[in-house]
Structures are given as structure tokens and as C-alpha cells.
Amino acid sequence: MRIDLGCGAHKFHDCYGIDRVDLPGVDLVHDFNERLPLKDHSVSFVMASHSLEYADHLMDVLKELYRVCRHKAMICMIVPYAHVSTHMVNPQFKQLFNEHSPRYWTPSPDTILTQDEYNITQNVSWSAPEIEVRNEKPMIDLRLMRMEFFYFPAYNSGFDQQELSLLRQSQLNVANQMMMHLIVVKQPVTQSELQLIKDSETFEEPEEITELRAASAAKEGKEKLFYLEHMLPIIREQIENKDKNENENTNMNKKKAAAKKTTGKKTGKQPGKQAEKQSEKQIGKKQTSAALLPIKHSEMFEEPEPEPEEITELLLEMDAELESEDEEQFVEKEQKQWIRCEPSKKKVAAKKPSLKKAAVKQPNKQVAKLRSTVPNNTKSKKKQQSTNKASSASASFEDH
To answer: Where are the annotated segments for Disordered (predicted)?
Structure first.
């Protein structure tokens, strides 16, 4: 048998409705403060949604429920939470409940619930101080299997369970109501057996509780702890810059891959302008670094690597071409400077070291021939210049 104690006009499904007011759906008009007209051990489930706070004597009602329930029957209670200012002054509420209430409904010192919920209490045992006369059989044994709290909107998001536990036990108007599932124990039962029941049992609850939980979860998902609307332009700009940099890097990698593909096909001399030759030289250096570091090169380009011997031959050929062309250009430039006009003293002084350096760096017949074209009277001019400076200095000294 399943009963809904104080069902009102919204009786729980598959239950026998009991209420002191004759409302639609009520099966038995009866005041539950009186003895229930039910047999002992005949009830398997009890729903008490927002009814027990109106009981004249709570312990007497619980004793009567314990009498009519069978062993391992389930009792579901939805009650107002005690630490609410309006609940405290409501003259219709004769009973108030909090997380410590179930401790007075069992003599068992153990519980399957986590002890984090009771950090504030100083009691070592789960059960509260003895409520029965010592050496007498306990009148009720209702073990708490599950407990859930429902909070005011300000506390629906932004807090973890431990923070909410400390808040509702130390401040007012944090939690609004609570739901408890208790199992009726009339025979010896172990903690492991109770834990198995908790893990496998489907705890029934009213539809309004399910809707309230879903609404709280939806609000928590939409709630924002930080409002960043004023930062949206900056965030968009950062995202655009990031995408732009990624596109540029992608295009650059494609160009490098294309350059590598074209240069890999070149095997001989390709005459052209000086800019093209310099670019070929840079490409040759890249190929050298790629040969020395094949792993990094393969990460940058997906093209297959040429053989090391081909790279060496190509580089030697290009270096020989660049050396011969640089030498011809150097000789031609120096000849033009000396043939056009007689160089000044500063120019001669500046060019002499470069001629020596060039001669030492690349000694050949053309450079030696160029050295012979330098005027022989350079030294005589230097001597004459130094003599003139000395004579002018002595003349100025005599004038003084």
C-alpha cells in the first residue's frame, strides 16, 4: 500500500490520499494528528509533501508512520527549511526542519551520508543525544538515505556544495526547502546493505520538485559570473588578428614550398640579372641548411629531399660562377675609375687598401695588370704635399 499524507488537491500517483479536508482526489478524510486507520506493517511507501510542518506533535506522527510501515519502506518528505525568516514567524508552521532533524529519528550512530554536511556540529556520533529512556527499545528508527536542498535564486549558481552547506547553516534565507528520503528499519540491517539500497533505489519525488530542479539547472547554465559585453570589440579584434596571422603564415609556407619545388628542378646555369643570381645564392644556402637539418626541413616542406651529392655539385658550380663574375665586375669597375679622370688624393688613399685587399683575396693576372696601371707619381705627389705643408708651417711661425 502507498499513501500520500496530507495530499490536498494534488495527490501523488498510485497513492491512497489522506487529508483532513475533502478535496478532489482525497480517498480518506482524516486528521493525521490522530491515529491512522491502517494496519501495522501494511504501507510500502509514504509521500509527505509540505504536510508535516502542520503537525501538532511531530514525533507522534512519525511514530504512527513507523507503525503502519513495513521493514525497508520508503518515506519521502518535502518540508520548509528552518533558517528562513518568513518560516520562523509563520504562525501556521508548527514544525521546522533542517539537516540535523533526521539525527533525532534513529538510534543508529552511523550514516551512509558524507560527514561534510555536519562540519559545524560537535557531536561525534551521527545520532543526536538519546531521546528515549535508556535500556528501552527505541520507538522509531528512520535512517536517512538521501537529502537535497533547494535554494533562493541568489544562491542557485556560483557556489559549490560545501560553500552552500556552510552558508545555509550560518546565515538566514539561503535555502528555501529540503527533501529527505528515509528508510524504515524494523530488523537488523548493515551499512553495506543500506549503501546498496541507496545506489540501486530510484527515489520517487513530486513533479513540482523535478520541475524546480530543472529550472534551477537551466538558470545556472545561463547565469554569468563575469559580464564581458564591454570586452567584445577587443575580443573580436584579437580573434581577427589571430586568423590573419594564421593565413599569412599559411601563404608564406605555400610560397616557400613552391620556391623549393622550382629550385629543386634547376640543375644548370641560368644567366640573368644580378638580383636573380642573389636569389639563387640564398636558395642554395637554404638547401645547405636543409641538408644539414633534414628533420626541420621535412617539417617545413613536404617535398622530397634531393640527394646530398647533387646539392654539393650544384653549390660548387654556383660558387664558381659567382666568383668569376664578381672578379670581372671588380676589375671593370676599377679600370673605369682610373681611366675617366685622375683620382684625387682622398680617393687614392681610400682605394689603395681595397686594391691590396682584393689582390690578397683573389690573386690573378688581371688584378696584377690593374695594379700596374696605378700612376707612378702618387708617391712623389705625397712627398711634395708634405714638403709644402712643412714650408707653410715654418713661414707662419716666422711671421709670428
So the answer is: 239-310, 345-400
* Look-up of cell digits 696601371: 373
Q: Measure the CA–CA gap between 126 and 147, rounded to whole angstroms.
A: 15
pLDDT digits (tens, 9 = 90+) for 10-67: 999 999 999 999 999 899 999 999 999 999 999 999 999 999 999 999 999 999 999 9
**Inter-axis angle of helices 308-340 and 365-372, to 10 degrees?**
10
Q: What is the DSSP string of 92-159?
A: T----B-TTGGGGS---S--SS-GGGGSS---SSSSPSP-S-TTS--S--EEEEEEEEEE-GGGSSS-
What ranges in the chain are assigned the alpha helix state H?
58-68, 85-89, 161-170, 191-200, 207-222, 232-264, 274-292, 294-300, 308-340, 345-361, 365-372, 378-399
Cell of 59: 514525533
d(CA 317, CA 271): 13
In whole angstroms, give the CA distance from residue 191 to residue 206. Answer: 28
pTM of the model: 0.55
Q: Which CATH number fits domain 2-222: 3.40.50, 3.40.462, 3.30.2010, 3.90.700?
A: 3.40.50
- Taking the C-alpha atoms of 120, 126, 128 and 130 in order, what is their torsion angle to the nearest 10 degrees? -150
Identity at 116, one-letter amino acid code: D
CA distance 33 to 52: 10
- DSSP state for residue 54 in the 8-state scheme: G
Please check whether residue 54 is in contact with residue 67, taking contact to mean a CB–CB distance below 8 angstroms. no
What cell was used for 244? 590573419
